[in-house]
Amino acid sequence: MILLLLLNVAIMVVLSQMLNNSPNLSDAIYRSKNIFASSLDSDIFWSGRNFVFPFFFIVDALIVFWRLIRRYRQMQLRHIINELHYIADGNYNYRIPFELRGDLSKVVASINGLVDSTVAAIEDEREIEKSKDELITNVSHDIRTPLTSIIGYLGLIEDGQYQTQEEALKYTHIAYTKAKQMKSLVDDLFEYTKVRQPSVPVNRVSFDMIQLVEQLAAEFELEADKKGVQVLVETSESSLIMDGDTEKLVRVFSNLITNALKYGTGATQIVIKIEKAGTEAILTVKNNGTPIPRESLDQLFDRFYRVDESRSQEISGTGLGLAISQNIVNLHGGYIYAQSNRQWTSFIIHLPLKANTSKDSSAGSR
């Protein structure tokens, strides 16, 4: 403001000098004053102060206002930068709280959105690392148990600590059984990691789901008869043509039937029900064995999860079957869930009848 006042005085001095040194300019200004005074019927323009001082005041006010606005925006920008540095120091739960107008408002919104995205990415990365650690821990635990037995029994044979040939054969049989258990775990782990890949191919073909399920049921009849269990197929459809990867879908139903035979304690029936509902097929694999506790239903599809840890030690299993099944169903654009009550424990699958490429790709990326 001081600079503006000095500038105003300097301009006034220069104008005064110009008027004193130029009579023609003075005459022109005098005639202009006369014209304004006669036209507006007022003598306000006869005094230069009545015109010049308000003009300088308006110009000075506009310049001061422009400078204040600019300074205010610089302060806002400096404040935003300080807030950004505070967030960058590791305070990712903090957001810039104040609201602004114009472009700075967009900057604040973009910064807060960027921080949200960064926090989400960090959390996803932590979950991935945690998931990897859990996977390594679970695999190590499940492999160590049979491996310890294999080493122990083969060590007895190596040291000759057996009395008869039959006892040596017993030790080798146990070691062989444990080795097959390890192979089953490795195969399931390979299958699980394979179906979890975002770009895993789904080799779709057109097939009859009813025919596929009936063939699977026939393959399990012998094993089911040994346990006194009937495997039944129920459907009101004569055929149900759909698109899908038959090799992967066979793995899903094999896992579900195998689980029913292993863990459906007291079951006498395994029923595979096939229904058509609009553009999707609803397939239910259920058994009338011991129900699954309600608190375990939501965890059934977690890898390595077993409902009864003590029982699963007696019955071989990797805990990956349902996780693999869920991922295969997701790859086909469907979903699977479980229900259990005193009558039936059911695994219900919804699958689209026709291929949906965009849906498949989004399901594969999950």
Summarize the structure in words:
The chain has 366 residues and is of the alpha+beta class. The chain folds into 3 domains: 2-88, no CATH class; 123-195, Signal transduction histidine kinase, dimerisation/phosphotransfer (DHp) domain (Helix Hairpins, Orthogonal Bundle); 205-364, Heat Shock Protein 90. 63% of the residues lie in helices and 12% in strands. The chain is built from 12 helices and 7 strands. It has helices spanning 2-21, 23-40, 49-88, 103-158, 165-195, 209-219, 221-226, 246-263, 294-297, 309-314, 321-331, 357-364; strands at 205-208, 230-235, 241-244, 269-277, 280-287, 335-340, 345-352. It has a 5-stranded mixed beta sheet with strand order 2-4-5-7-6. Strands 1-3 form a two-stranded antiparallel sheet. Helix 3 (49-88) runs parallel beside helix 4 and helix 4 packs antiparallel against helix 5 (165-195). The longest helix has 56 residues, at 103-158. The protein is elongated, with a radius of gyration of 41 Å. Mean pLDDT is 79; it is low at 309-315 and 361-366.
